[in-house]
């Protein structure tokens, strides 16, 4: 193409406009960042506080797709969503959600799983038939909240006490649910077929106490499961669950609740009775572990953890106020960044 002044001027004009546009976008991004909040991925706050009188959430999961947190409720059963600004609204509800405990967001399959129980008078939906007897798994579409399955697990062992507490999901999509009132871990496959994965009296707790609690899946083919009254985390092989063993540690984990696998060698454990989150490090595939740090929460009854990018957040649930009959009930709850 022959060179001409007009084509050269056109090129210069185009470059100038592109430069101006780029400068404007950078300036806008900078101002948005300084204003604190209109970028698509704003900086994560240290604390998200939300007000819902007597909600008493126990489970929390961060949804990176929509930048929101899902929270459960012991007292109402409904699952809510919380934004960074503290705005709370109900995400999904169903009459069978007597009390929702642990949550698990299976993002790749667009599923939100909830452990469903009945703690008795603490739930507005409690009935004489289900109080202390209910263990169920509710599965929702994580995008629209539609209930896709409800699996009553307690019917696998009728007559005993049951309390579904927490959930882990393996690479194939199988869900594992702990029962705090029976020494049982249930398994539910992708088709909704339920079975007893592990049942052993060594995992039992005294009557009325919480036994099995938090649970996570390790990609090397096993589960890590907290037993609250014993203060122990157990390693449970998927291919041979009866060969479970305690993770040897000098640290008592009494009151162990939520677990989070930070990486393949690091497990975070919430102890609500000790008001502490322990960071356990392992160099032998969790045959043993040592404490590599701890985070004191104060008297807030911390329960469960969730990951947000490279950060970890813990839910301050204030359940001691609920179990103690505090009146008026707690109104403000918070999701807080964990800092060791």
From TrEMBL:
UniProt KW Plastid keyword: no
Signal peptide: 1-29
Entries under InterPro entries matching the protein: 6-blade_b-propeller_TolB-like, Sensory_adhesion_molecule
Keywords of this entry: Signal
SUPFAM superfamilies on file: NHL repeat
Protein name: SMP-30/Gluconolaconase/LRE domain protein
């Amino acid at each position: 193409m022959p060179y001409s002044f007009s084509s050269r001027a056109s090129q210069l004009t185009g470059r100038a406009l592109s430069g101006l546009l780029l400068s404007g976008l950078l300036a806008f991004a900078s101002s948005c960042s300084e204003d604190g909040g209109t970028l698509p991925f704003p900086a994560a706050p240290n604390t998200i506080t939300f007000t819902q009188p007597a909600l008493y959430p126990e489970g929390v999961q961060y949804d990176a797709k929509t930048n929101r947190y899902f929270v459960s409720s012991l007292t109402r059963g409904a699952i809510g969503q919380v934004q960074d600004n503290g705005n709370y609204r109900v995400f999904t509800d169903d009459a069978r959600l007597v009390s929702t405990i642990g949550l698990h967001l299976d993002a790749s399959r667009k599923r939100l799983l909830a452990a469903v129980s009945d703690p008795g008078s603490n739930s507005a939906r409690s009935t004489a038939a289900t109080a202390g007897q209910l263990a169920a798994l509710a599965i929702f579409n994580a995008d629209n909240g539609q209930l896709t399955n409800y699996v009553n697990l307690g019917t696998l062992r009728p007559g005993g006490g049951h309390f579904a507490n927490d959930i882990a999901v393996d690479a194939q999509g199988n869900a594992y649910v702990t029962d705090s009132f029976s020494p049982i871990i249930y398994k539910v496959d992708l088709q909704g077929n339920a079975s007893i994965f592990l049942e052993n009296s060594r995992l039992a707790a005294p009557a009325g106490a919480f036994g099995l609690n938090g649970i996570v899946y390790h990609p090397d083919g096993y589960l890590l499961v907290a037993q609250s009254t014993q203060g122990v985390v157990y390693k449970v092989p998927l291919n041979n669950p009866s060969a479970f063993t305690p993770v040897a540690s000098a640290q008592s984990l009494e009151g162990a609740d939520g677990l989070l696998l930070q990486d393949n060698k690091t497990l975070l454990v919430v102890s609500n009775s000790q008001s502490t989150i322990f960071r356990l490090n392992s160099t032998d595939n969790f045959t043993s572990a040592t404490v590599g740090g701890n985070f004191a929460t104060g008297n807030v009854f911390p329960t469960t953890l969730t990951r947000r990018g490279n950060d970890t957040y813990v839910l301050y649930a204030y359940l001691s106020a609920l179990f103690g009959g505090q009146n008026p009930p707690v109104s403000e709850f918070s999701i807080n960044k964990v800092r060791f």
